Inverse folding.
């Protein structure tokens, strides 16, 4: 199973267009050792030719240009992207759907809650219907019901509900339902390898235990280092937890949580531009390394091979 990180940043990207925080200023001016990052998306494949896109980022066209495997030339009009899975209805995960409007029917897997958001508060599907046919495949999370994507042989996906938050424009923003935000267990039928992808992992819950304990790899919410990160910078009045993101540091944070699971390779993804872990020389980054936790970067290819070799 191959997992290609297309975009490892949270909404806004890194550096963010209007931000002069230490990280954004530093990466622009070369005073902080950090890599720019595009917005949140991965692609997954078993054979390296046919890919499932997880989330369609506003940076999708640049991500496709940067990863030629997503653009094979088998026909006049062709793509390596066989289908799109959406984990929520946030701007950073859905705006790129507009960039896939040309021509062929577009198969999309998402929950009923996300579909509702994408036909009301963030009506991407309504707009797209004027350009192409969106073929919606509803995801069932209660109980989690596995699905496959036609054209992508050998991979099986299981959508798992996460305690997080529907987006600000959602009709159910303050009325949480299972399916507002999901994690996905990705399993390779041939190798038996399992990866749990959950960039919107807002809080631990008992039903998530097997996905953390039994996976070979986990790609989890890396948005914020501290719960009050944006409050201290004076750019928000809300904590990380209040907007559905589990911070890394502190009691009950991601570092403490992941220490309970020896098995998986641990990778943080969907990192906000304010997060000190983006600075490769920071003490926070060193603390992650001490706990065996990696930080995703754009272009990272994770190859969970049958022999157990991870690259
Ligand atoms: C989030 O997941 O909270 C988002 O990245 C917010 C956004 O897209 O602005
Ligand atoms: Mn996001
Ligand atoms: Zn910034």
């Amino acid at each position: 199973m191959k997992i290609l990180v297309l975009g490892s940043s949270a909404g806004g990207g890194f550096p963010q267009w209007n931000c002069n925080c230490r990280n954004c200023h530093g990466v622009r001016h070369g005073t902080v050792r950090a890599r720019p990052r595009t917005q949140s998306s991965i692609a997954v494949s078993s054979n390296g030719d046919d890919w499932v896109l997880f989330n369609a980022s506003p940076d999708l066209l640049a991500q496709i240009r940067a990863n030629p495997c997503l653009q094979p030339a088998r026909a006049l009009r062709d793509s390596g992207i066989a289908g799109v899975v959406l984990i929520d209805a946030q701007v950073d995960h859905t705006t790129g759907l507009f960039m896939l409007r040309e021509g062929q029917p577009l198969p999309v897997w998402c929950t009923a809650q996300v579909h509702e958001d994408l036909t009301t508060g963030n009506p991407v599907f309504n707009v797209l219907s004027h350009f192409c046919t969106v073929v919606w495949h509803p995801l069932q999370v209660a109980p989690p019901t596995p699905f496959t994507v036609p054209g992508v042989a050998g991979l099986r996906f299981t959508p798992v509900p996460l305690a997080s938050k529907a987006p600000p424009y959602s009709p159910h923003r303050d009325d949480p339902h299972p399916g507002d935000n999901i994690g996905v267990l990705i399993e390779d039928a041939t190798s038996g390898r399992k990866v749990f992808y959950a960039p919107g992992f807002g809080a631990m819950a008992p039903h998530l235990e097997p996905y953390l304990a039994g996976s070979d790899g986990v790609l989890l919410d890396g948005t914020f280092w501290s719960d009050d990160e944006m409050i201290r910078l004076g750019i928000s009045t809300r904590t990380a937890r209040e907007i559905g993101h589990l911070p890394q540091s502190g009691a009950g944070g991601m570092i403490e949580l992941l220490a309970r699971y020896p098995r998986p390779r641990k990778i943080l993804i969907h990192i906000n531009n304010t997060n000190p872990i983006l600075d490769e020389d920071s003490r926070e980054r060193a603390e992650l390394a001490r706990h065996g936790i990696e930080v995703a970067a754009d272009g990272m290819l994770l190859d969970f091979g049958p022999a157990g070799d991870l690259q």
